[in-house]
């Protein structure tokens, strides 16, 4: 059996943004999860959300004191595209591992959902740079079925390139050049040491850049203590802004939730557990808890302190996905005959890499400086100065673009 190499790659979030109100469409989750679907991408919202939480829980088990950051949507998209070529038990196992209940949604509906979602995300608004791209690099000796290639192009907007994998250096340069371009230079030299018998590399890239509607003022960013744990304290640059935010304190799981919407249709959730309560929050983290937060948020005046930081992460996915039930595609039992017509392929490698940069947007800082510095006596203080969980969501489709936990902002 030949190997083909699957690489899942993610470019990072270049800046968070925030505004003083939550748009009307922010209340759409209840309709999506408990009412009729309005768009094809709503058909896959629950599955994608459940996969995001499953993946987070698995990674968190082995990373109690480490930063976590990944794109669940990037991983789901790449492996759903791979499902176009999967058959029999390999197909059902793959889709089930991605948290799609095949008694409630068909394979066709899944691919149609991703098709609609990719089109939606690639045209979010004039205020946000957001691209979700897929590519297939195919060895010249491999002859994929026309149906597989056409479906990859149609449903997943995949670019298709012929590659000479006999020249591994040339192949790596070709793939890395594509990734570099798609991620605006944020991910470089990702592909290294391709297996000698690689016949195909599948790549998913996501890049996002957004701006604060009312930016933090970089002139008032100051160093503060960040309490990594009960024994470790580090100095971090802490941004500050006074304004109106949607927040909720969940007494049941002991955490503070703060929502920072972007310009456009993307929102950032910051979940700040009480000291010593991170595991309690992580254990409860799931779709039901998220819906509870959606319906409990209230707007209030807040003195908000948020760390300025950047991190990068890299995950070898084989072990994680196996624990989530996706096993066949990595073994001789793989049936990927929908790619070539023969069950002679398996996945030899699956890599996910992510980059995140949170900072002030100084270009518009002066416009709101005066109001930001006048706290109201009735306002509360939310200081994100200990480990926190974050989730970046596209609100109309309810898609998790990014998810993570920042244990130490100084560890890259």
Q: How would you describe this protein?
A:
- The longest helix has 17 residues, at 45-61.
- A hairpin with a 5-residue loop joins strand 6 (222-227) and strand 7 (233-250).
- This protein has helices spanning 29-34, 45-61, 72-82, 88-97, 107-121, 146-156, 168-182, 278-284, 287-296, 317-323, 337-340, 369-372, and strands at residues 2-7, 68-70, 129-139, 159-163, 198-209, 222-227, 233-250, 255-261, 266-273, 298-307, 309-316, 345-358, 380-383, 388-394, 399-406.
- It has 412 residues and is an alpha+beta fold.
- It has 2 domains: 2-18 and 42-210 and 310-357, Antithrombin, subunit I, domain 2 (Antithrombin, Chain I, domain 2, 2-Layer Sandwich); 218-307 and 362-406, Alpha-1-antitrypsin, domain 1 (Roll), CATH 2.30.39.10.
- It comes from Phrynosoma platyrhinos.
- Residues 53-409 form the Serpin domain.
- It holds the Pfam family Serpin.
Question: Brief overview, please?
Answer:
The chain is α+β, with helices and mostly antiparallel strands and 412 residues long.
What fold name goes in the CATH topology slot of the largest domain? Antithrombin, Chain I, domain 2
Structural class computed from helices and strand pairing:
alpha+beta
How many separate domains make up the residues? 2
Radius of gyration: 22 Å
**Quick one: overall form?**
globular
